[in-house]
Design a protein that fits this description.
Blueprint (H helix, E strand, L loop, with lengths): L7 E2 L3 H6 L3 E5 L2 E6 L3 H10 L2 E4 L4 E6 L3 H6 L14 E7 L5 E10 L8 E6 L4 H11 L6 E4 L4 E7 L3 H6 L14 E6 L2 E6 L8 E7 L3 H11 L6 E2 L2 H10 L34 H7 L7 E7 L10 E3 L5 E11 L4 E8 L9 E6 L2 E8 L9
Helix pairs in contact: 2-7
């Protein structure tokens, strides 16, 4: 039985505890699920700015001139042509086309005497699995591998006011950073790496600093954001935010038992002339009529569909399963993502979800459910 003392702790753990966060076991880490309420933190992210401790995310380094070529041999998306300072989303698949993780690949820019190198951010729940996976394959390349997770902290600043807040603690013109780019700069008095990706559907950045500088960086961001109503947010709001933005979550929309061919993430599947684990299986099944597909479902009322609830067509046939569901604070209705048969994926189609023994009507709607105005 895992106890609180067995869980890994981020460099911000004590701050979370001292400030009333409700801590939970998440992928072997003691993480804040919420500070006030999930809804309040969700709305604060949509309307102002929040801070998330995402230090549990794995941070890998592939050093040497062949780092990107090595990753290109294992990722579903081409990265050997990734320009310095750019980031690319991809999947890591096994030989059967199942998903080991979804990741962000970085071409880290030079810093001082340090040469550019390939970096990666992976889901915290898959860090050890992927570390082993890459170490098994790295022997075929002249590449050095290291897991830098425990040496650093990662803070996500998210919301329409995120860039204004971050700008107050750095001279880097953050607003000029393009989406999916990364750079190094002094930030809140620390030597930081700044990326601009996000997992909430809002604008923002991620700040990676040495573990010893984590609390200093966190506190300076809270102070800088005070005029904007900044607040810390936990993993509960992060989940409802990403679901509204239709971003898949590992263990729900993605897993080793789910084929990359069914996810709808075709932009992350570069199949022409490339070899990576599972590429032939994915290519063969990508357009197969019996391959399930990911859809968005919108319900009326207040009952919330949850993971593993079954989906039925109008004739009562079981045609799929819910992977994630929530009551949307932004849209004020229940939402879900599900995998259903392709013939039941048309927009506007009426389906039913079994919620505790009773069928509730749902409509197939376009993804994402929510998209911010630019």
């Amino acid at each position: 039985m895992t106890t609180a003392n067995d869980l890994a702790r981020t460099p911000l753990y004590q701050w979370h505890v001292d400030n009333g966060a409700r801590m939970v076991d998440f992928a072997g880490w003691s993480m804040p699920i919420q500070y006030s309420t999930i809804t309040a933190e969700h709305i604060a992210t949509r309307t102002a700015v929040t801070l998330f401790d995402v230090s549990h995310m794995g941070r890998f380094r592939f050093s040497g001139p062949h780092g990107l070529a090595f990753l290109d041999s294992l990722l579903t998306r081409r990265v050997d042509n990734l320009a310095e300072g750019r980031i690319r989303y991809s999947l890591v698949t096994n030989e059967a086309g199942g998903i080991l993780d979804d990741i962000l690949a970085y071409h880290m820019p030079a810093r001082g005497a340090e040469k550019p190198y390939a970096g990666m951010v992976v889901n915290g729940s898959n860090r050890e699995k992927l570390s082993s996976w890459f170490q098994v394959h790295v022997s075929d390349f002249d590449v050095g591998f290291s897991d830098d997770t425990l040496e650093s902290a990662m803070i996500a600043v998210q919301g329409p006011k995120a860039i204004e807040v971050a700008q107050r603690v750095t001279d880097l013109p953050i607003s000029q950073m393009k989406y999916f780019t990364v750079t190094h700069c002094p930030f809140a008095g620390a030597d930081a790496t700044i990326s601009r990706t996000g997992y909430t559907g809002e604008d923002g950045i991620e700040v990676t600093v040495p573990a010893a500088a984590a609390e200093q960086t966190w506190l300076q961001l809270l102070e800088a954001g005070e005029p904007f109503g900044i607040c810390p947010a936990g993993l509960g709001a992060r989940d409802t935010l990403r679901l509204e933005a239709a971003m898949p979550l590992y263990g729900h929309e993605l897993s080793e038992n789910i084929s990359a061919a069914q996810t709808g993430l075709n932009f992350a599947l570069d199949l022409d002339g490339r070899r990576f684990p599972g590429c032939d299986v994915i290519a063969k099944t990508l357009d197969a009529p019996d391959m399930p597909c990911r859809v968005g479902l919108k319900l009326t009322g207040k009952r919330v569909p949850r993971e593993d609830y079954r989906v039925f067509d109008a004739d009562g046939n079981d045609i799929g399963v819910v992977t994630s569901g929530t009551f949307s604070p932004t849209l004020e209705c229940p939402l879900a993502m599900a995998y259903v048969s392709k013939q039941h994926s048309s927009l506007g189609l009426g389906l039913n979800i079994d919620i505790r023994g009773k069928l509730h009507p749902a409509e197939v709607v376009a993804l994402p459910f929510y998209k911010r105005t630019q």
